[in-house]
Design a protein that fits this description.
Length: 378
């Protein structure tokens, strides 16, 4: 199908309202828009650069955790949560009770993403895996009563105070089985020669249009992008997340999705999505380089000259790249030091500017690895 001939769907009369019924997407796509070709080439090159660099980075997994944590914070922020990336690394009992629902949503996102990546080793990217991921995402917090892990059995809508003044009404629930079956077949149809970056752009659009869950559709749909790229070996490591791009361009993101639905303008959506891939891959690559430089510089300039403490200090530094917000008890447990020795080591890390105290308390103090965290707060 030439994308100029793409028909997104049609409005259907429901019970006192109209809903949008999308067309099925399981077919090939072609285009003559040279802008798409240029963006597709650049996006592919940027992902290739990210893959190449990640192969030569020792302990890439510690950086993946930070990328997932940032993704969880930003993707949840799009839905209205207020948790910041530092709070994502704090234990629940240390979170202000008024912020715990937000904290749970971010923590659940991290768990859902990690579990989905692990499941991809033995399961295909499928409706089953999507439901399993959704079950974890909504396992606690505000979404726990919104049928976690189950496709909806009632009508939902986007925007507005009721279905009658909604910005967008997705398809009725009895349309979901056929649409989701087509969606899953499209993900795995190897006879379609459409490039993966185009396929995942269309898949994300279709998932958000179907809106198959009562809650959590945006987060699952954004998470789906990374899972698809990993499952199809476009990404060698899960280091690319588009939520930050979508959040910074939120109005354009929603407008371009609606432009496909209402004006059949798939080309503009593809341009926007590929631009997001380019910018996100470039940012991820720059951050990865900065992290590796930071790690090497700290090891050489501040850790290896700590004398007898160097070995334990190096162990703590590597721990901070996985958990950049800590208390003394956690340092003690990780290093096996006495309480006094752990306190002394933390103090030396503060004196060297590696850690800073963030609570202002005399007891139950928390310390943050600022320079590292700042690389993910841009």
């Amino acid at each position: 199908m030439d994308i100029k001939d793409f028909k997104a769907g049609r409005m259907i009369d429901g019970a006192g309202y109209k809903y949008f019924l999308p067309e099925k997407i399981n077919h090939s796509y072609v285009w003559t828009d040279e802008t798409i070709n240029k963006l597709l080439e650049e996006a592919s090159l940027k992902i290739g650069e990210l893959n190449a660099f990640s192969r030569f980075v020792h302990d890439t997994d510690m950086f993946i955790l930070m990328h997932i944590s940032k993704e969880a914070v930003v993707s949840s922020r799009i839905e209205g949560t207020k948790t910041n990336i530092e709070e994502a690394f704090i234990e629940e009992n240390e979170i202000d009770p008024e912020k715990r629902d937000d904290w749970k949503e971010v923590t659940n996102y991290v768990k859902a993403m990690n579990n989905a990546i692990e499941e991809l080793k033995s399961l295909p990217l499928s409706n089953r895996l999507i439901r399993d991921t959704h079950r974890i995402l909504l396992s606690s917090g505000r979404g726990e009563y919104k049928n976690p892990g189950e496709f909806r059995r009632s009508q939902n809508w986007i925007g507005g105070s009721s279905i009658n003044d909604a910005i967008f009404v997705p398809p009725a629930c009895d349309e979901l089985p056929d649409l989701l079956s087509d969606f899953e077949i499209f993900l795995h149809n190897n006879k379609i020669k459409t490039p993966h970056l185009i396929k995942v752009a269309i898949a994300h659009y279709q998932f958000e249009t179907i809106h198959p869950f009562l809650d959590g559709n945006g987060r699952i749909g954004r998470l789906l992008i990374t899972l698809y790229l990993v499952a199809n070996e476009v990404l060698e490591k899960p280091l690319l997340y588009l939520s930050d791009f979508f959040e910074k361009n939120r109005t354009l993101y929603y407008d371009n999705l609606m432009k496909v639905r209402m004006q059949n303008d798939l080309g503009q959506w593809l341009n926007f999505f590929l631009t997001g891939i380019i910018q996100t891959a470039t940012s991820a690559l720059n951050t990865l380089k900065q992290v590796t430089d930071l790690k090497a510089n700290l090891e050489k300039e501040k850790i290896m000259n700590m004398g007898r403490r160097s070995k334990t200090a190096l162990e703590l530094l590597h721990y901070l790249f996985r958990k950049p917000v800590v208390n003394v008890k956690q340092v003690q447990e990780k290093t096996g030091l006495s309480a006094k020795a752990a306190n002394d080591l933390v103090k030396e890390f503060m004196d060297k500017g590696i850690l800073s105290e963030i609570t202002g308390f005399q007891r139950n103090r928390m310390f943050v690895f600022d320079e590292y965290m700042n690389l993910f707060n841009k």
